[in-house]
């Protein structure tokens, strides 16, 4: 094709890449990379070498442009130009729910975020420090009787319990077991081929979502019943989200403060998934890095022992104690920097 000199064509602004096969695009190659155990790094690496830092592809039925330079990532994520909005792929929305923070439209996202961010205040989080510490201590004491410990599995066990406890005060028993199993199915389905055929990973994920929604539904009804009876409240996120019911704020109002039940349910599931996998993966990487850097482990252990000497053996750490761990805080930050726990943040371009 001939191009006029000094006259840029629209094609000059389209990132290089391949659309792959008709209909499926490059979805199969993307899936093969994910299932290879290395994640989709190989998929990105091969195309980066071929096309450069910015390339386009077609996966899950839509054009995706991958950018991997720091400058482009900053420009897109800061979104000062207002040209992008958060949007995960359609099949993820079907699993976590269309009202989830991960999938909501720009305006809706603002409303949801405003309500949900209140839950993460310092006084609120400080209530959970003791509970999280107890979970870790219980888990570690079970290691004594094990010949092999798979750190990621143990960390997932701790973080799933921590999320279910913080969100809905579910900490043991049948409900927790079901949630653990079903949440794992939803996570597996999130990057599976979106085939609604019985037996596929995606289909199992959708079925698991239905069962999780039913558990949360029952929990909401039970909370409302207890409120009507004036029974003791739970100290968890679900209770605080439902507490808005009591303020009598109009459901229909465009600038409503409270969330609908469907929004609460989608976002409870979103928080379990967003909090569980990320934190477990961060813990696992940190254990690996500490093993590889024994001098860092030594300084970290000394900081902890010094704190332990100051406190009684039967007490749990407080928020002040956490602020008294500058070295531990650096170890966490450096592990997060090195590990890229969330390697891929999709955004929807609002303009070409
Ligand atoms: C080490 C642990 C964690 C890491 C590395 C991490 C990382 C991230 C990142 C990078 C994002 C932005 C994704 C994007 O913009 O597309 C994100 C979003 C989010 N995370 Fe986390 N996260 C962690 C723990 C948690 C926990 C414990 C919770 C819940 C209790 C949580 C809930 C969320 C939610 C709800 C969002 C969506 C926020 C929004 O769209 O406004 N995360 N996380």
From TrEMBL:
Keyword field contains Iron: yes
Keywords noted in UniProt: Iron, Metal-binding
Pfam family of the protein (one): p450
Cited InterPro entries: Cyt_P450, Cyt_P450_E_grp-IV, Cyt_P450_sf
Gene Ontology MF annotations: heme binding; iron ion binding; monooxygenase activity; oxidoreductase activity, acting on paired donors, with incorporation or reduction of molecular oxygen
Family: Belongs to the cytochrome P450 family.
Protein name per UniProt: Cytochrome P450
């Amino acid at each position: 094709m001939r191009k006029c000199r000094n006259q840029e064509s629209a094609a000059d602004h389209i990132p290089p890449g391949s659309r792959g096969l008709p209909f499926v695009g490059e979805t199969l190659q993307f899936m093969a990379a994910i299932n290879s155990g290395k994640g989709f790094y190989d998929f990105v690496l091969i195309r980066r070498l071929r096309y450069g830092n910015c390339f386009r592809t077609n996966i899950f039925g839509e054009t995706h442009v991958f950018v991997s330079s720091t400058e482009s990532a900053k420009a897109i994520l800061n979104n000062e130009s207002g040209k992008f909005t958060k949007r995960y792929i359609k099949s993820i929305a079907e699993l976590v729910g269309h009202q989830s923070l991960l999938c909501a439209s720009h305006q809706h996202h603002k409303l949801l975020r405003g309500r949900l961010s209140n839950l993460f205040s310092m006084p609120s989080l400080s209530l959970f420090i003791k509970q999280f510490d107890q979970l870790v201590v219980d888990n570690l004491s079970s290691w004594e009787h094990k010949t092999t410990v798979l750190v990621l599995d143990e960390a997932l066990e701790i973080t799933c319990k921590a999320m279910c406890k913080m969100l809905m005060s579910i900490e043991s028993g049948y409900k927790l077991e079901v949630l653990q199993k079903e949440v794992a199915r939803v996570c597996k389905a999130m990057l599976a081929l979106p085939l609604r055929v019985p037996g596929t990973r995606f289909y199992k994920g959708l079925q698991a979502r239905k069962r999780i929604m039913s558990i949360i539904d029952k929990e909401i009804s039970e909370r409302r019943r207890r409120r009507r009876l004036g029974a003791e409240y739970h100290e968890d996120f679900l209770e605080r989200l439902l507490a808005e019911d009591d303020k009598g704020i109009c459901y229909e109002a465009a600038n409503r403060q409270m969330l609908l039940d469907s929004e609460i349910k989608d976002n409870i599931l979103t928080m379990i998934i967003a909090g569980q996998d990320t934190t477990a993966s961060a813990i696992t990487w940190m254990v690996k890095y500490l093993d590889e850097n024994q001098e860092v482990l030594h300084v970290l252990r000394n900081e902890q022992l010094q704190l332990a000497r100051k406190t009684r053996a039967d007490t749990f750490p407080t928020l002040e104690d956490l602020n008294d761990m500058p070295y531990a805080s650096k170890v966490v930050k450096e592990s997060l920097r090195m590990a890229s726990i969330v390697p891929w943040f999709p955004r929807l371009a609002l303009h070409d």
